[in-house]
Design a protein that fits this description.
Blueprint: E1 2-3, E2 10-12, E3 15-17, H1 19-42, H2 47-72, H3 77-94, H4 99-124, E4 128-131, E5 138-140, E6 143-147, H5 148-154, H6 156-167, H7 174-190, E7 199-200, E8 203-204, H8 205-226
Parallel strand pairs: 1-5
Antiparallel strand pairs: 2-3, 4-6, 5-6, 7-8
Helix pairs in contact: 1-2, 1-4, 2-3, 3-4, 4-5, 4-6, 4-7, 6-7, 7-8
Length: 238
């Protein structure tokens, strides 16, 4: 079993630094950097426009996350992602950018940020599952339990792999479709192990959210791969 590692807050003068918050901020910075670098390599748009797109994603996700926290008392990852995508789509449409290309940029950057965010969840143990004797269980003083934040963090490489495989197809929209469908396939079964979340029809709110996410990913992949293959595009990343 995995020994319990519980990150504690760090007082710095009058300020208290919380591990989860620090890792989320680090994830946003890393994801922002990954998105901007890929956009520059792909020559998607000017540096100013791309910086604006990255900021729109972060601001949209943060705004929706705060609203959900105020209404439901918890930070929702799927609502935050939805807010980021809506804000990014509005921003991209206002500049008449290729939304499939922007979706791929967001998909490329997501696993980088998600690795930090889910590590934060794993360190503060805010997504606990049932008591378990599995080798993946965390050995708490009150009994060993599955830590769903930790399990999802361990599965982040699957997201990286899905995005990378889709990238190699060189089809706009493939990375976004692959990430959406693969993440839904990861999150849906994991939420059956949640003990604290309220359920509607036997499913958590996140599970209901993954259903349209999976459908959107599959439909997008269907559209992408039924189109004629685009001409080879030279970029600085290859």
């Amino acid at each position: 079993m995995i020994p319990e590692i519980h990150a504690t807050s760090i007082p710095v003068g009058p300020i208290v630094l919380h591990p989860f918050g620090l890792l989320v901020v680090a994830g946003i910075i890393v994801a922002h950097t990954a998105l901007v670098r890929r956009a520059r390599a792909r020559a998607v748009a000017s540096a100013r426009v791309i910086e604006g797109f990255a900021i729109a994603l972060g601001a949209g996700g943060l705004l929706v996350s705060l609203i959900v926290d105020r209404l439901a008392g918890s930070l929702g990852s799927l609502p935050a992602a939805s807010g980021a995508l809506v804000a990014g789509a509005i921003y991209g449409a206002s500049f008449r950018l290729d939304l499939l290309e922007l979706g791929d940029l967001a998909a490329w950057a997501f696993p980088f940020g998600w690795a930090f965010a889910r590590l934060g969840c794993a360190l503060v143990h805010d997504h606990l599952g049932p008591l378990s004797s599995s080798w993946l269980a965390v050995r708490f003083a009150a009994g060993s339990r599955l830590d769903l934040g930790l399990i999802e963090w361990l599965l982040v490489p699957v997201l990286f792999a899905a995005v990378e495989i889709a990238r190699r197809t060189r089809r706009p929209g493939a990375m976004a479709g692959a990430l959406a469908s693969v993440y839904a396939l990861i999150r849906f079964p994991l939420d059956f192990l949640r003990e604290s979340d309220a359920r509607l029809g036997g499913l958590t709110a996140a599970q209901w959210g993954t259903l349209p996410l999976f459908a959107a990913g599959v439909v997008l992949l269907g559209i992408v791969f039924t189109r004629a293959a685009p001409p080879t595009r030279v970029s600085l990343e290859e």
